[in-house]
Design brief:
221 residues, alpha/beta, GMP Synthetase, Chain A, domain 3, 2 domains, 41% helix
Length: 221
């Protein structure tokens, strides 16, 4: 998104309509000061575009992903950026990452899920308008949140028709799929039950053909 997006410059309106459909804004900011840019000014410009397009959007929960922390000078830029943001938006959470080295990526994903779970699952602005113009037929899904957990030597095996159906649909090499699976398992109480049964950091868990390591302290996998 570039300056003037709220007036349709570039892909402005298309991008901002996408923002309307989100519940949490992850704002990736270059902390390396590439091409002489100032991270705080970059952050302000984008937020100004969002505010000018729709003032209500600026109140959406926002996490700043401070990117390129592997680059020289990034730590100094980050320290200054934190001070500047704190003065104008003390509610903003800033998480250092590096898309190159993968530093902080998992922590950012876990935190995003935490924030999403604290937000009511309400329809976005654009969805409300669309629903008012058409008939919506709702079908009550069968409650299939039941699951069992067994042991196979040191491995925990989860049996859940719902999760196994989900695994068949998802590409588990993507972050979005992992987040979706983690949220569903948490809501179903699977992670809590695994802890009660003795699962610790690094314990192998299997669901169908999918195996992963249990991550203690984050509630996700």
């Amino acid at each position: 998104m570039i300056e003037g997006a709220h007036e349709g410059v570039g892909l402005g309106h298309e991008f901002l309509r996408h923002v309307e459909r989100t519940r949490v804004i992850i704002h990736v900011v270059d902390m390396a000061g590439t091409e002489g840019r100032d991270p705080f000014e970059d952050w302000q410009k984008i937020n100004d575009e969002i505010r000018l397009y729709n003032p209500a959007l600026i109140d959406r929960p926002q996490i700043v992903a401070a990117n390129k922390m592997d680059m020289p000078g990034a730590e100094e830029y980050l320290a200054s950026f934190k001070e500047q943001v704190k003065r104008v938006r003390p509610d903003i959470e800033i998480m250092p990452i590096s898309s190159l080295t993968r530093q902080g990526i998992q922590e950012l994903l876990y935190r995003t899920v935490d924030v999403l779970e604290q937000i009511p699952d309400e329809p976005a602005i654009e969805e409300v308008a669309e629903v008012s113009e058409r008939k919506v037929y709702k079908f009550k899904a069968q409650n299939d949140n039941s699951f069992t957990i067994t042991r196979d030597n040191e491995m925990y095996v989860v049996h859940s028709e719902r999760i196994e159906r989900m695994l068949k649909r998802l590409q588990m090499n993507s972050h979005d799929a992992i987040l979706k699976l983690a949220r569903t398992m948490r809501h179903m109480g699977i992670d809590e039950e695994l802890r009660k049964r003795g699962a610790v950091e690094g314990t192998i868990v299997r669901i169908g053909d999918f195996e992963f390591e249990f991550v203690e302290g984050s509630s996700y996998y």
